[in-house]
Amino acid sequence: MTFSVPEKPTLDGIEEKWSKNWEKSGVFTFREDDTTSPIFSIDTPPPTVSGSLHAGHVLSYTHTDIMARFKRMTGHNVFYPMGWDDNGLPTERRVQNYYGIACDPSISYVPTFVPTPPTDANAKPLPISRTNFVNACQKLTQEDEQAFEKLWRTLGLSVDWSKTYTTIGQRAQRVSQLSFIRLFKEGALYHGESPTLWDVDFQSAVSQAELEDKEEDGLFYSINFSLAGTSDQVEIQTTRPELLASCVALVANPKDPRYQSLFGKFAITPLFEVEVPILAHPLAEIDKGSGIAMICTFGDLTDVLWWKELNLALRPTIDRRGRLASIDFSDERFPSKNPNSANAFYSEIEGKTTKTARTTIAKTLEVHGFFHDQPKKVRHSVKYFEKGDKPLEVVTSWQWYIRTLAHKERLLELGKELHWNPPYMKVRYDNWVNGLASDWNISRQRYFGIPIPVWYPIDDEGQIDRLSPILPEEDELPIDPFQDTPSGYDPGQRGEKGGFIGDYDVMDTWATSSLTPQIASGWEENSDLFKRLFPMDLRPQGQDIIRTWLFYTILRSYLSEDRLPWKNTVISGFVLDPDRKKMSKSKGNVVTPMPLIEKHGADALRYWAANGRPGVDTAADENSMKIGRRLAIKVLNASKFALAIAASELDVQGVSEVELSPIDEAVIRDLEGVVANATKSLDSLDHTRGLEATETFFWSFCDNYLELIKIRAYGTSEQGVTFTTSQTLSARITALAVINTSLRLLAPYLPFATEEVWSWFESGSVHSQDWPNDLTIMDTAKAYLGKLTSPEATLKTGEANQIETSAIYQVLSKVRRAKSEAKTSMKSPVSKLKIVGSSSIIRNFELAKNDLMVALVTNQINLVNNEDQADLEVEIELAPR
RNA sequence: GGGCGUUUAGCUCAGUUGGUUAGAGCAGCUGAUUUACACUCAGCAGGUCGGGGGUUCGAGUCCCUUAGCGCCCA
To answer: What Enzyme Commission number(s) apply to this enzyme (predicted)?
Structure first.
């Protein structure tokens, strides 16, 4: 048996060394032609490349990688691709800032334009064409993706890099557009002109999942409306008086006694003098203000609901820039009793932002005596786009929707079928599905995204006929309706009367990333592969995107395959900063992984991550990384030691049989228990317990077992004790078998250190070894015996001589305590050692007496049987110094 | 407002179906030692399990209540 153990083992540089080696040898490649091994497939979360990878990613991706490596070792053909989410708004924002550019679709393409970061950070953004802008996005995301890949490789993710996909790539485009077309034909996807939440800064619609409620200070205005045909007045309250011109009705709760007589009558809006009905609806809150509210087009989503349910008129006044649009009160849509004065009042606010218009019109109302009371301060929640800075408006526009409301029940059932880890995370999904209020708007008025694959005919009057969309054929996909021409038309007919025009919009990023299982596993491309991979085994992800990524993916899988996209999901917690505060860019406490890897090593960072349980928030704790590093170093050193003693000189001539010493057999039995335990834990996706079991054993193996058998394993004699060659071999092969097994148990957690050690004395990669079996450790020991002696040598175990390591370690500990209390060296001799206990306990020491004598440094151990002795009693006398 | 999670040694966390003196690592303190490992080794000390009530022979572990923290939904 030959070893090549470095003189001074080190963790330095092993990330680069082994990640390159793995790439070359292809140990992590999915074997598509292997149709016999069971498959374990992972639906990788594609990280947003426009952001930066932080410790939170490391946590979740390491958990996934531990499972991937474990499954690979248990004989699975692991399908573990990586995806990059480069599509969408976050990328646009990063590109705008990075290159100092802004997309202006009215500008024409400049082929020679090369985006470069601006020299003057304060310079105004350079307007460029849509195509140039999209190219700039492509360029930067590719650079970002390389940096991300480097980090993942350094962290040791066992990804099959040949399967990498991106959410803007050709494959993703084809899948997204194909799904779009099919859903449209089935009626699961529709388009129409309807009220939509709109971000005035981003100039785009947003979906329910992207909303964020923010508590804000506002003013509650109290305004008098006069009642039609009387001199009476009714007081309504609102936070948005600037919407007065778009008021279409007043509403109160049907149970509110104050307004019973008013229902069915009409009120006149102040200033604009438009007659509006007074109606009843249960959503009107009795105890909110005066209990009667104005319904506008549209102040919020409740207005939208009232508009639909009460069948009201439309009087839109807010335009897409969030300003008061130009309207005319002589128009039938705004039927003022006094159009001239209405127009005059309105001209004060026309063109202004909602915020400015609010204060302006409030002043006018007050001046003209329409205030019932002075405005009161209130805290109210306002809806924002999660990435936006201004409150959302509701505007009416053409959008594409995927139906969600119609499938609520089935979606809840699918949530039940999914195996959630931890199980309580399912509640978040249920909450979300139950709270769905609108279908999913998937169109975004942006540039860098997958085009909506639709054209519209232009009629002979030059009007776009949105109701007759032209769809591409499936085999034409992917298409860009701005570049490509629908069949039956000429490119020259673009934008002409009787011609066609492409849909301007792109899809919401989630409309693509909700298809990652289909994109990765060959849907509609390789049906044989798809059948084998889908549904996938594991979806790991963060708790923050249950309502988006997880929900949408289930929805899409249900719509296209009528079943779940995966069998299991593991939801990771947040990573908190070292002070247990949530990390966020604005707080500036984001922990980035690369410096941590440089400081502690990848295995150390993985160790920290492995100690975070699914669903539990975990602090970025460098202390834990230090402990991980210690473990990795211990693995190097202990292995080096075991190999060194195994290789030290010993005359094995004529050895044909070795009997395993009782303590050696005991430590192997301990390890069998650990293997069973770790396997069970990992099988149930509990990586933390799996690590804990192995780590505890391994550390005790180093501190207790190796210390105990050191002398015997070297084959030297001390304290007048000599060991036979058989006994020495027994210790050597046990140490080797334990190291071998421990390396495999630790390989998913510490892939670099274990691989490094494996390379010293075994062939191949530790990551393609079989996961240890609790029944075959003895076989491993026997194999090492064959290597150290001759292949024919037999190994005998002592069934009748079974002992427990715990009893032995207990005496070890008691003697150490005595020496420590005497402040003397562990190598100082013990002059007298008496152990009293029941015969069954004493038997342990009889069978390990020689090892104990040399390890404790004593030439005599007095063992006394006493059946009345409940506990072990040890008398220790140290030799005088 | 509804819901989920969490509260165990100075810190970070284990404590499986309720059962003997509540565990670990780190930090602290006391030592040892440099032929596997100073990114070492040994030992010591330190909690009555957020508060209150209850069920039980017995509760950190079940029930009720209350408070703090975090998050989800409205």
So the answer is: 6.1.1.9
